[in-house]
Amino acid sequence: MDTPLYKYILVGCGAIAPRHIREILRTGTLTAVCDTDPERLSEYMTMYHVPGYASFDTLMSAGLTADIVVLCTPNGYHASQSIQAMQQGYHVICEKPMALKSKDAALMLAVAKQTNKSLSIVKQNRFNGPILQLQQWIASGASGQVYSLSMNCLWNRDTHYYTSSTWRGTKELDGGILYTQFSHYIDFLYWIFGEVIEIKSLASNVCHREIIDFDDQGVAILRFESGVLGTIHYSINAFEKNMESSLTVLAEHGSIRIGGLSANTIEYQHKSGSAFSIPDTTTHINQYPNYAGSVSNHHFVYDQVLNGLQSNVYNVQSAYEAMKTVELIERIYALSPLPTGQAGLGGS
Fold this sequence. Notes:
- The protein is 33% helix and 25% strand.
- It is α/β, with parallel strands linked by helices.
- It has two domains: 6-123 and 302-315, NAD(P)-binding Rossmann-like Domain (Rossmann fold, 3-Layer(aba) Sandwich); 125-297 and 327-334, Dihydrodipicolinate Reductase, domain 2 (2-Layer Sandwich).
- It has a seven-stranded mixed sheet with strand order 8-9-10-7-11-12-13, with helices on one face.
- The protein is globular and about 55 Å long.
């Protein structure tokens, strides 16, 4: 990719930060880092020979010359930090979820428009080969009428995962597993199938009551404006490891099941026309010290953002769709309060 070099500020030096560092160094230079953990901050300052800031407010008041602020901070900070960064004159690349409240996401969009800054939310799983093919198949009309869908997100998050960072498991900064673990997959629903007009949902916390203050599993039934019916089963209670993130679609001209650990392969397909290609994705799952995550497609995200900056055409639609993801999660949770006694740390 032939691009000018951009100057980046990285905020948050946690588990996902190395994926962003790779793209920052591929497309530009790292100007500064920020983290509230002194040990991590010192490590990144030494490793990349850049100044470090122990608080976001101090960083923003420093008046650094840079183009893009990259936010890898806890979910509950995304909205306020994105807004502050744009108001200080920086473009923003923000890890998912966009925010924990749809009203905050809407404010982020408004500030992006007011400041004429690019606001990009990392939704790298959209670039999974099977998902791209499914989206194009449906958007082109080749699928014919879509009848129904079923989504399963069955992962494992154990005690060590939640106790390794103080923000994890808290309602205020984590928000819930639909925000932190599964927002990529909820994003598929609005992006591919459109507006949801009816929801029925249930949730519970059966394995993590002492360590998190929200659900660890849930189910939802959806009716889309197009008439499509859908179900979601999501859980972090899979035995010992992640098992699947899958999406099955039944349509007039085909039946498709996208599966794998992160909706990154095709488990079956029977359709008219050309078959979907099946990519080799065995090396692309984000691996962390004690758990696995989603597919690592951050290079596609950065290329998309930088293409927009070069052409001065920002992908506002993508940020709007990220807001709709937050809105859908908010609606599911509003209809599925935890049973009494299951709310964990901060609930009733």
